Amino acid sequence: EAKSQGKNRYVVYTSDMYHSSMEKLKLETDLRNALIHDELVLHYQPQVCNHSGELLGVEALLRWNHPTMGMIYPDKFIWLAEETGLIVEIGKWVISEACMQNKKWQKDGYKPMKMSVNLSSEQFFRASLVGFVKNVLQETGLAPSNLVLEITESMAMDFEYSLNVLRKLKRLGVCISIDDFGKGYSSLNYLKKFPIDSLKIDKSFVRDILKDDDDVNIVKAIITLAHNLGLRVIAEGVERKEQLELLKSYDCDEIQGYLFSKPISAETFESRYSSLLSDIKLLC
Ligand code: C2E
Ligand code: MG
Ligand code: MG
Ligand code: MG
Fold first, then answer.
1. How far is CA 94 from CA 88, 136, 137, in A?
2. Residue 198's beta-bridge partner residues?
3. Per-residue pLDDT tens digits for 142-200
4. How far apart are CA 174 and CA 159, in angstroms?
5. pTM
6. Distance between CA 225 and CA 231 in Å, rounded?
7. Are 137 and 178 contacting, i.e. CB atoms less than 8 angstroms apart?
8. Residues enclosing ligand 1, CB less than 6 A?
9. Which ipTM did the prediction report?
10. What is the pLDDT of residues 117-152, one digit of tens each?
């Protein structure tokens, strides 16, 4: 059926979840309305310094508060947003919301931190991206260095185009991170040319780090590679103290995962802020 579709996620979710094109159409209609009815929400997950145990930033992760289906996670609708092109509008909302929230927290007296935002390739390959980011930074007054754009290896496919976009984004002063590093199939050639700041080790490598020597070696190699290229390296999906210890011993710069916190709403972040900071410090 969908064999010719390059996107595995499309195949998986259409066959798993959507028994008819009607259901898919319903979800698409709902998703169009989601923006208008303000049903999208960002949750925030801490990113922690391995050395100091300080909160360095948060990653903004999109959720959809569906009126009847409840909270829907990105793996269940981002593919549809991409397929329908809705991701462009949604992605813009995510960038503005994340920047506004970060600026608001700074105004409210929270310690300045970085805000990471995921970009989909549909967004990345739009001519309007750079101008949009520039406007949001101007309108919110957020320091550009407090915004991190997470791209994936797939965006390195069109080398010249991507290099050009990334250079423009860098000129604005934002940070660039390669998400899910090691998961894609791209060559490593782009690493020496692209103006990037950090690599995020895909959580599939972190998951079994306590029992699988191959994963240990891959993770160590990524950390060494990043450091030799002058990049910071972040491990995602860290759930256990033992994983943290191991990653610390490999000198991984930043840690993100359920160990410190699941992604939480802005309200929860605020109400838990001080205990969150002290819990994180204790774990480190
Ligand atoms: P990602 O960018 O790699 O984000 C990390 C994912 O890992 C998040 O899933 C997060 O909740 C999850 N995670 C964090 N720590 C742990 C852990 O310790 N254990 C486990 N098992 N999982 C952990 P989430 O929020 O469901 O998002 C899934 C993916 O959806 C993201 O992966 C990202 O690729 C995409 N996504 C999320 N928000 C956005 C968005 O605003 N725009 C776009 N284009 N994509 C987004
Ligand atoms: Mg990410
Ligand atoms: Mg991502
Ligand atoms: Mg990831």
1. 10, 11, 13
2. 177, 232
3. 999 999 999 999 888 889 999 999 999 999 999 999 999 988 877 788 898 999 999 99
4. 20
5. 0.93
6. 8
7. no
8. 45, 61-62, 73-75, 78, 91, 94, 118-120, 179-180, 203, 236-239, 257-258, 263
9. 0.98
10. 999 999 999 989 999 999 999 999 999 999 999 999
